[in-house]
Amino acid sequence: GVLHLSSGIFTAGDGAVIGGTGTLDVSGGTLTLADGAQTTISNLAISGGMATIDGTATVTNFTITGGFLNGAGDLVVDDSMIWTNGQMRGAGRTIVSSGGTLEINGTSTKSLGRTLRNEGQATYDGTGLTFGPTPGELGLIENAVGATFTVDGEGDFLYSNGGAFTNAGTLIKTGEGTTSVFYGVAFHNSGTVQVQ
């Protein structure tokens, strides 16, 4: 089934348990998963409103097509993450597990103000990836050891208020005749960079 939040406020406090094989769909309003809430669900979809995670939440699939992901906690994605629009902010991390995939696509602005850690297979084949939505919210992408991050096409890494891309795995640039630029975003490399 689907638990749909389109307005108002829904809070899962300390000790709350949210689980199952359905979908938690946030299109408006405010969802808060407090520190101490146990969240393990199949699907989380954010298209509007705000979802705040202050503990650790584990999902199979995560889609963000608008709205905000916020909070000091970690969102762990085991299988598939798709990001086409919207903002990810806060002191926490969004983590794509080693068996998972990350797709960053579309031309809409995707604003990163938290840590996005890829431990699996990532593809950036869109545009509009911007780091640092506000001062003090520096976006960071971590491409972990053993992970692959492929930039296919004209995808740039743009700054608003700063950020960094740290590569300890493999960064691959593809797309004949295309250019990708780190504009104001620091690039730290201890892994492998391939241009194909």
Protein model, in words:
There is one protein chain. With 196 residues, the chain is mostly beta strands. Helices cover 0% and strands 64% of the residues.
Low-confidence stretches: none
| Cα-to-Cα separation, first versus last residue | 43 Å
Question: How big a fraction of the residues is strand?
Answer: over 45%
The count of strands amounts to 20
Compressed to H and E, one letter per element, the order equals EEEEEEEEEEEEEEEEEEEE
Return the average pLDDT rounded to an integer: 95
Question: Helix- and strand-based class?
Answer: mainly beta
How is the main sheet built?
Answer: 20 strands, parallel
Measured on Cα atoms, how large is the radius of gyration? 16 Å
Overall geometry comes to: globular
Helical amount: under 10%
In short:
Helix content is 0%, strand content 64%.
Overview features:
64% strand, 196 residues, mainly beta, single chain, 20-stranded parallel β-sheet, 20 strands
Secondary structure layout plus pairing:
Elements: E1 2-5, E2 9-12, E3 17-26, E4 30-33, E5 38-46, E6 50-53, E7 56-70, E8 74-96, E9 101-104, E10 110-118, E11 121-124, E12 129-131, E13 139-143, E14 148-152, E15 157-159, E16 163-167, E17 170-174, E18 182-183, E19 186-189, E20 192-195
Parallel strand pairs: 1-3, 2-4, 3-5, 4-6, 5-7, 6-7, 7-8, 8-9, 8-10, 9-11, 10-12, 10-13, 11-14, 12-15, 13-16, 14-17, 15-18, 16-19, 17-20
